[in-house]
Write a structure and sequence with these properties.
There is one protein chain. The chain is α+β, with helices and mostly antiparallel strands and 356 residues long. The chain folds into two domains: 161 residues, D-amino Acid Aminotransferase, Chain A, domain 1 (2-Layer Sandwich); 166 residues, D-amino Acid Aminotransferase, Chain A, domain 2, CATH 3.20.10. Helices cover 23% and strands 30% of the residues. It contains eight helices and 18 strands. Strands 1, 2, 3, 4, 5, 6, 7, 8 and 18 form a nine-stranded mixed beta sheet that branches. A hairpin with a 2-residue loop joins strand 11 and strand 12. Helix 2 packs across helix 3. It is globular. The relative contact order is 0.15. The chain binds pyridoxal-5'-phosphate. The site of pyridoxal-5'-phosphate (PLP) has 14 residues, from strand 12, helix 6 and strand 15. Pyridoxal-5'-phosphate binds next to strand 12, helix 6 and strand 15.
């Protein structure tokens, strides 16, 4: 191995959670990875240590100006006991694009993936195997120089934590109800919409709470300028089946370039299903609904993989999609992607990376 990390074993390992009652992101494993960055020295001192609280200076830049980024991917254990990561190099590449936007130093892609592998290997017993469960991997970087002026930090921490998770939505593959947000916006051209950073989420909480209060699980965001083009769903990318074509928003700066989104497009192309990355207005979707051409909608993201949408609310228009049931394209995509991720299907795309 090119990289060596020191390992301090946790002297007090925790009891593993019951796989039947796992929720999303509430339990954490026995270890975490930490590595420091110092201007002039670069990334150094990568180490695996017992999971636990951090000690940070209250003046750390992250607390005041949100210089922070995060990633998300999953590890699965196959029936024959192999530990599989799904396309981790794409997370490494996206990390560097996010870092560039937020003036966080670049990180070597191999270092990023090797750190994940080393940590997952130590806590491999935490990977749950029940259908719909996985070990969620959360790499993130925080600016921790103690300094209150506004400029890029000279010191950072790259941290990875692991969380055994159940389905992202309590109902699993049960279709969700979405509210089309026409007041708040998530991203604008030239902003940070395509960067995976906490700031985007802090700004989205209010819209999500208001949608929850109205009885909707998530938001479908419209573009920040015209509030006209459909963009994304909360923590995932949005797909619409209109007639015989699957459409999703293009990656033009305001959309998070999802790895699941990229995988969905590749699989659809391989299966010969028409797919287009193009700007689509909410009015086009409402019209397609009225014409009986709005066949399916689903969201794609690491947490839920594929999440079917059963109801879409835009102003006074309440669209019930595919009788509120999961559609055939969403089901096939879920089966294919989840099958590859868990090693049940042959990985003919070369997407999985084994942790040995
Ligand atoms: C992470 C994320 C996604 C999904 O990306 P995946 O790589 O598929 O998990 C979509 N939208 C937003 C806003 C995200 O943060």
């Amino acid at each position: 191995m090119k990289y060596e990390f020191s390992i301090t074993k946790n002297p007090n390992p925790k009891k593993k959670p019951d796989p039947d009652t796992l929720r999303f992101g509430t339990e954490f494993t026995d270890h975490m990875f930490i590595m420091d960055y110092q201007e002039g020295e670069g990334w150094h001192d990568g180490r695996i240590v017992p999971y636990g609280p951090l000690s940070l200076d209250p003046a750390a830049v992250v607390f005041h100006y949100a210089q922070e980024m995060f990633e998300g991917l999953k590890a699965y254990k196959s029936e024959d006991g192999r530990v599989l990561l799904f396309r981790p190099y794409m997370n490494a590449q996206r990390t560097n694009r996010t870092n560039d936007r937020l003036c966080i130093p670049q990180i070597d892609e191999d270092l990023f993936v090797e750190a994940i592998k080393a940590l997952v290997k130590i806590d491999a017993d935490w990977i749950p195997q029940k259908e719909g469960t996985a070990l969620y991997i959360r790499p993130f970087i925080i600016a921790d120089e103690a300094f209150l002026g506004v400029r890029r930090s000279n010191h950072y921490k790259f941290i990875i934590i692991l969380s055994p998770v159940g389905p992202y939505y309590v109902g699993g593959l049960t279709p969700t109800k979405l509210y089309v947000e026409d007041k708040y916006v998530r991203a604008t051209d030239g902003g940070t919409g395509e960067a995976k950073c906490g700031g985007n989420y802090a700004a989205s909480l209010k819209a999500q709470e208001e949608a929850h209060a109205k009885g909707y699980e998530q938001i479908l965001w419209l573009d920040g300028v015209h509030r006209k083009y459909v963009e994304e769903v909360g923590t995932s990318n949005a797909f619409f089946v209109i007639g015989d074509e699957v459409v999703t928003a293009p990656l033009d700066g305001t959309i998070l370039p999802g790895i699941t989104r990229n995988s969905v497009i590749a699989i659809l192309k391989k299966k010969g299903i028409k797919v287009a990355e193009r700007k689509t207005t909410i009015d086009e979707i409402v019209q397609a609904y009225k014409d009986g051409k709005f066949k399916e909608m689903f969201a794609s993201g690491t947490a839920a993989v594929i999440s079917p949408v059963g109801e879409l609310r835009y102003k006074d228009e309440d669209m019930i999609i595919n009788n509120g049931e999961i559609g055939p394209i969403a089901q096939e995509l879920y089966d294919t992607i989840y099958g590859i991720q868990t090693g049940k299907l042959p990985d003919d795309m070369g997407w999985t990376v084994e942790v040995k």
